[in-house]
Specification:
Blueprint: H1 3-6, H2 15-18, H3 26-53, H4 57-67, E1 73-74, H5 75-82, H6 86-98, E2 102-107, E3 110-118, H7 120-144, H8 147-153
Antiparallel strand pairs: 1-3, 2-3
Helix pairs in contact: 3-7
């Protein structure tokens, strides 16, 4: 990504640095900041995930959920956790299975239940890509959040980047010189 894309001069400063002007309740303001930060991370991750893992962002989310469970998860549980319809998840699961990143198995005693688990190939891919993905997340959060929010997050993400200097506003051309 080019440097001008990271700190474009035509964009306003970090929304969390401006604070809450009292128009929104604190909880709603905090929620909006969280959504903004999440959106910034997702935007950055989409390209990195495709490049390093060869999967879509939604497929990556499925892999991440499965990585937290040693025995795998039922499809219905994955759909619940991701807030996705089961029909959409079925397509993602088929793509992941075709890439040999997950296995599907029937659940004993429940003929409709399907258990999904990571393959060794998926575990290796995730392990190899983890540092780069973590760096992408850290950088995106560091650019979106203001100093107070970054400091609060350092308990969870100790490597969160230091405060970045604000981009200088773009100067308008002098009409007299044209």
């Amino acid at each position: 990504m080019a440097d001008h894309d990271k700190n474009p001069a035509h964009l306003p400063g970090c929304p969390s640095a401006r604070g809450n002007d009292g128009l929104l309740p604190t909880e709603l303001h905090a929620w909006m900041l969280l959504l903004g930060a999440t959106g910034a991370v997702e935007q950055r991750l989409r390209a990195v995930v495709k490049e390093r893992l060869g999967v879509s962002h939604d497929e990556f989310l499925v892999l991440c959920l499965l990585a937290t469970s040693e025995d795998g998860l039922r499809m219905t549980r994955i759909a619940e956790l991701l807030g996705r319809p089961k029909t959409r998840l079925t397509y993602q699961i088929a793509c992941l299975q075709h890439s040999d990143l997950i296995t599907r198995a029937s659940v004993r005693g429940d003929k409709r239940g399907i258990q999904i688990a990571l393959t060794d190939k998926a575990r290796r891919l995730l392990a190899d890509a983890s540092d780069g993905l973590a760096g992408t997340i850290t950088d995106a959060l560091g650019e979106f959040m203001g100093p107070a929010q970054r400091e609060a997050l350092r308990g969870l993400l100790p490597d969160l980047v230091a405060e970045r200097p604000a981009a200088a506003p773009a100067e308008a051309p002098d009409p007299a010189s044209e």
